[in-house]
Amino acid sequence: MTDIITARNLTKRYGAVEAVADVSFAVAEGEVVCLLGPNGAGKSTTVRILATLTRADGGSAFVAGYDVHTQQRSVRAAIGYVAQSAGTDAYLTGRENLLVQAAAHRLRRSEASHRAAELLDLVGLAHAADRIVRTYSGGMQRRLEIAMGMVHRPRLLFLDEPTTGLDPEARATMWNELTGLAHERTLSILLTTHYLEEADRLADRIVIISHGRVIAEGTPEALKAGLAGDSVSIELAGSPPADMVMAAATVGARAVTLDGNLLRTRVEHGNQALPAILSRLAAAGCQIESASVARPTLDDVYLHHTGRSFTVDDDAARRAAVAG
Fold it and tell me: Would you say residue 278 has pLDDT above 80?
């Protein structure tokens, strides 16, 4: 299978901040690959380099067979790009937005009209084609943006955080549509997300990025299967001393972390180990709010490779961004 993206040792700095540090991965023709990582991990910067919107400081990348540094015009003709921020004109109709995009790609008027109707039907907006976009819901606007990215029939579609800001129902609808789009069309997709469930559901393969570096990649199933045992999560009441909690929980455990009052450990047989762990914690004076046993998740994969919870890293990055 031919690779439509090949990235090798990409780096990008903004002043003292190393946004992308030695990132390498590939995307095969027809594959849906997800760059998964917390906010600020370097996902969007990586995509912007591949889409020729940002120039890397080091490394190389080829998209659809073209060098992103020296053949930018050819790369842009082969890709569709849907950014995080809205790219629609709120005072035009959905159809008019698509026709403007088609004109930008120099499609003939008859072809543009046909393509607009085809895409509106594909993304489920035919019924709202002639409504102005400011009357659309957030999910409808996002679907229109994806349609705009496909006007010129690209070989590869970049989707940067395609469901950010959508409510859970709209997000689930978008997932269904993206799944159908990927499987029914001869289209490669590279999407970024910080939603674990989104990556698990949509991707043929996941590339996990943390602090600008690739820390793991593989199919969702393979990444999770690489972690032996079960994941045990225990929510503690109050804030008991960490050393006391860790001492009580580490017997027979493969890995133990304590984030605030959430204790997480991985053991061979979760249902058998849980009563013993709870007993030791109770003997140490810890009060238990809740406990659960589950098969490994992508959060466990991230924890295994970084020593930190994905959610904790994501929340910390959000707070840092708000603080400026």
Answer: yes
